[in-house]
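Supplementary Methods S3. Complex input for the calcium ion-bound model.
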Amino acid sequence: MKKLLILSMSLFAAMMLRAESQTITSPDGKTELAVELEGGKAFYSVKYEGKQMIERSALGIMTNMGDFTQGLKAEKGLPEQRTNGTFGGHKHSYTMQNTKASKGYYDYKFYGLSLKNDKEQKINICFEVSDNNVVFWYSIPQHKDAGGIVITGEASSFKLPEGTTTFITPQSDPMVGWMRTKPSYEEGYSLDGQMTQRSHYGRGYTFPALFRVKDDGWVLISESGNDSHYVGCRLSDYNPEYGYKVEFPMEGESNGWGSTSASVPFRTNTPNKTARTPVRTITVGKTLKPIVETTIAYDVVQPKYEPSQVYKPGRYTWSWLVWQDNSINYNDQIEFIDLAGAMGYEYCLVDAAWDTKIGYKKIEELSRYAQSKGVRLLLWYNSNGSFNDAPQSPKHLMDNAPARRREMEWMQRAGIAGIKVDFFAGDKQHTMKLYEDILTDANDFGLQVIFHGCTLPRGWERMYPNFVSSEAVLASENVFFSEYAAKNEAKDLTIHPFCRNAVASMDWGGTIMNKYLSKDNKSRHPRHTTDIFEMAAAITIQTSIQCIAIQPNNLTELPEFELDFLKKVPTTWDETQYIDGYPGKYVVLARRHGTDWYVAGLNAEKEEKKLSLNLPQFAGRTVNYYVDDAKKGPQLQQLKVEEDGTAKVTIQPNGGIILTR
Ligand code: CA
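Predicted complex, serialized as structure tokens:
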């Protein structure tokens, strides 16, 4: 009898150690999240249509209060799936102006896991599972009377199945590059790379990261909702044990100053009194369609303030891309304002050093002149006081509220429409706060904001309604700087719709129409893409204020049909559809502006691409077909789309197509 009791007790103990798990499925039943608790550790995994997309991966955070990566227990076992969420219910819709879609619909299943660590401190790990997306975040209930919690790191990881290939871009070393301005998310991409390959700097990778899980599907990993209460995170190098882990900023960022950890307040003014982390997003699909079309970065955030006015999307001319520093003078800016006026563009961007080379009084004059042509100015600013060596002025104005607000008040009086703020310094919390402070103040003075030399925006188009877009990409300036980048332009622009530009707006900085990257349009290296490629890129690149880097000489050089297209090209989209493509090889997207569809394709491969596209929006109709003819060059033709929506098209190497009515 005694023996039996011991036996049953040890059986009971063994049962206690067994994994507890729960499965949560998306509304359409295809995306499946599994949550597990084993040996005091929490794990999750993700399947799509029964195929493993993320294998068992770690959860948990390290804090100054206690460790939430081990010794975790669920007092009442793992709860059953619930259907209503902690914020906004399990279904909500919203509108936005500055992204790939004007309406977001978010229909999800919420799952909250309440755990305690060894010290009996509580943490909630929260999940939402929607069709093709799994997101999670941590929410820590207020501990005693603490005002906040310092999160020093995370165990959160993403373990992709073996054989997965990567489409990822490395994090740079800190304080390297031009005037020690990195990291600025301006690195190249691996294409179908191996997970085991070490990252270029050994610093891991920046968000977003795209993975191909053999023939089973695609996974896009990113984060959203990072604001002044967190740091910007990245992924570690690959480790066979845990995959890719969430990493905090590097010690050396911002000239080595400032903490790498995150200080998060307990929101005692909310019913739960919790401290929350940003949301980690995982988008999965059998094809690239859900990756290109996802709005998850926006679904999981809320606007932080109301827009102070209706902000106008549009196009801008930019003298600096080709005419460079010498063009920052009164007369050249008149030329680019006139060019914007002739094209019917809304904006003209005046780049660095305008304060000394043109001066405030003359800028006021230029602004008045621009407005007389229906154009408004955007002005360049240096973000920094001290955290890198970028010398360009105006400096010391955007990094402190009194100077910034005084400057913005002047801009408002002078009729300036927006600012481009350049040269930030990494992802520490003080820098994330600087972005938020600039955006918030700019809204008070009716200014829209573009960031350059900067981090990835994480849900910001919705959080900050006057935020337009960020560079955070190896952008068009490199096409000017080197022929190497010019040769890679087609490849680069066929990666971003699936990755960088799938989670956030991107200021690429220009549809370039000069044949040569020079003011005389004869010297220096040539552009390697066709005219139709560049025009189509104005559709595939998504940002609500798009740079059309047309030059004054282009007005007399370009065929009438190209100029007509560039005059009318929209920059805001009600809907975006993936049609076809493969990262780094080719892409075909459809975007809808009101009732007008624009189908745009780019080819980065060496051979011409013959595609049979399925375009129900054009079924049985004759559309305008912008295409490169191998012999005759850029053409505007008519194309009859078949009754079933089939359109047969050919895209030349480094060329493009556009179909529109
Ligand atoms: Ca840059």
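The CA atoms of residues 116 and 122 lie 5 Å apart. Residues 303-472 form a domain with the TIM Barrel fold (CATH 3.20.20.70).
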